[in-house]
Amino acid sequence: MPENCFHCGQNIEKERISFDEKIFCCNGCKSVYEILNLNNLSDFYELNKKSGIRPNDDNTSQFDYLDTPEIFEKVTDFSEGNTSLVNFKIPVIHCSSCIWLLESLQSLNPNINYSQVNFTRKTVQISFNHNELKLSELAKFLTSLGYKPVVNLETAEKKEESLDKSLVIKLAVAGFAFGNGMFFSYPEYAEHVMGTTDFWMEKYKHLFRFIMFLLATPVVFYSASDYFKSAWFGLKNKIVNIDVPIVLGIIMLYGRSIYEVLTDYGPGYFDTLCGLLFFMLLGKLFQKRTYSALSYDRDYKSFYPIAVTKVDFNGKQENILLSDLKVGHRIMVRNQEIIPVDAILINGEGNIDNSFITGESASVPKKPGDKIFAGGKQVGSALELEVIKTVNQSYLTQLWNKEAFRKYEIGLDTLTNHISKYFTFIILGITLIAGIYWGRIDFEKMFQVVAAILIIACPCALALSAPFTFGHVMRILGRNKFYVKDTLTIEKISKISTLVFDKTGTITHNKEANIHFEGNEIEDFDLKNIKSLVKNSNHPLSKALYDFLKVEDEYFPVEKFAETPGKGYEAEIRRTLYKIGSAKLIGEEAKNLETAVYISKNNVFIGKFVFKNEYRKNLSTLFKNLAGYRIHVLSGDNASEEKQLKKIIPDFDGMAFNQNPEDKLNYIKKLQDRGEKVAMLGDGLNDAGALKQSNVGIAVADDTNSFTPSSDVIMSGEKLEKLNDYFSFSKDAMVIVKITFAISFFYNIIGLSFAVTGHMSPLFAAILMPISSISVVAFTSISTWWRSTKYFKIK
């Protein structure tokens, strides 16, 4: 009896290595087992039996070229300080244990910070210490585990494949065989359908059948190879996926056709088989193109058209869309803002926090002339940067969806997979019963019936319904300045019961406020310095104060900038120390029922700017439309606006003032502990913790690059009054998905009824299958567009 290797599961043919009471097929598998055991990662073998990959015996010195500076810079996404970030394509990733092992690399090598797998793209992103672990050594290490990375010019240039060339070639082979097969099967059709016989046709029919066999064979073993691989990997890991019934149908038709030709019983079904695979591959190509189109919209059209501050050589500021940013433009990045592009530092003291990219919280100092990577966050005074690469929104999408900011919940994708799994078993049961029935009545027809059932029952339309509907909804919401992180967020929005609003910068305007100064008269020298200082902050009150100060916009260098979260900030300008913020920061006693920014010069209090907030338009209408939700308002300010807020929101469920960032987070937790599904709306600054804690975090942005990784949604402040429309549209999307589920089941029930009763050929089933997918796509496109016209003006 043949033995299997404990690690890779392959049959042991040559050498047989015993170790730790287990058998291995080679030293490579034994070494990987030892590595995993020594690092307490033996759970790898419990996830999926026989799931390992046999290490490649190739010479790993082929990776030495990766350490060449030019190649290293081209292959890596990020490299600064001790940390580099690289994306490797690893085609052999195939199951959950592969993902688990590749995301546990930091346990195997202390110089790896973290690793994250993208299963659909077969890639792994790795953060590593390039001073201790060379890029070539990292590639060799992965190869030693059996996961050899593919590195070539295409992967180095980070180009996304817009068209699956191998699928097109397989489709072309199937189409060629189908067309010619129909031609060579004409004698058989003429004889059986028209009742005509011809001497030459009769004489050469065996030749024609042999040619049809030759045409069908590459279609089965090449064009259909992806179906066989998918079914095999599934069965190998004890999973019956949706490709198993399809493979059974293909094998049955192909085997029966060979039998009929060899015994001269009939012509077989070679032409039908080629046609079946041609239409199935056509449907698969359509599905891939559909997903690709959605991915393109997601990466480049739907996200982050928030404005960034562009500055000219005279210091004049202008807000432009990120998508309009070009190489050579100069931009301003303030304290706590994300840098949206790769750039060169022109002015300012850079103190870049790359934790969003590398996972490490250490800041890196930068001086003029240094390169700064997209995704870093400035901590300190404002920077002036020159753009050297256009905005890579695909990269920012990866950043937004990073592991640290992910909230795990079961969604419709999981539901679809569960339905598909049970659906496959039900179809196999129906196939068995129908096969037994028709085998007793009409043995020849049984093959057609069984093949038709297996093909028509493929739940492709079911799998398409949720992602395609949500993809359309995300695009429509994005066009209306409501930028959703992922499809699961739409489902979560539809379940929200409670809304928590931060006051400042969310339901109030950043720049529209009544401001007056109380204190000693301030000289122009101090006013210019103060304006330079507030220019560095992205807090709503600082922005309002910047616009209020009517002095010449002359920017002076800011030194020793330091911020105290929730209180304010300080810095030296022209050898003068200024503090701007709350009364506590300055050392003064706050006046009750007042929103004010206190200012001190060289630790001497000189006055305060008192704010009377201007609320956004149509707030009363907004909260009236949100009557179905429980409304709460939080504010870091005192209760000076409480009476005004009660007039705007007469039916509120809770209000709290003097809330620091931790208080806001705990407030959300208490609501969730009561079983409420909470959406938090904040400006993304002091609200980052609360946004992450909430079921749906919505960052409200005004004329700034308020990219907030801890949020699920970024929306334009001017669109706040449309909040109920966004939520209602998300609920409608859930209804549309459920209807598409029903359509998919309807297709399968009707199709199965015809197939089981013997009234449907396998070829017609193969044609109907992509038609069902097309109808689902058409329905979701039309229905989402129609529902969107109720809420938005479609451009």
UniProtKB/TrEMBL annotation:
The chain crosses the membrane at residues 167-186, 206-228, 240-259, 265-286, 422-440, 446-470, 735-757, 763-786. The keyword Zinc does not apply. It is found in: Cell membrane. Pfam families: ATPase-cat_bd, E1-E2_ATPase, Hydrolase. Residues 4-76 form the Putative metal-binding domain. The keyword Cell membrane applies. NCBIfam families: ATPase_P-type (TIGR01494). This is Heavy metal translocating P-type ATPase metal-binding domain-containing protein. It comes from Kaistella yananensis.
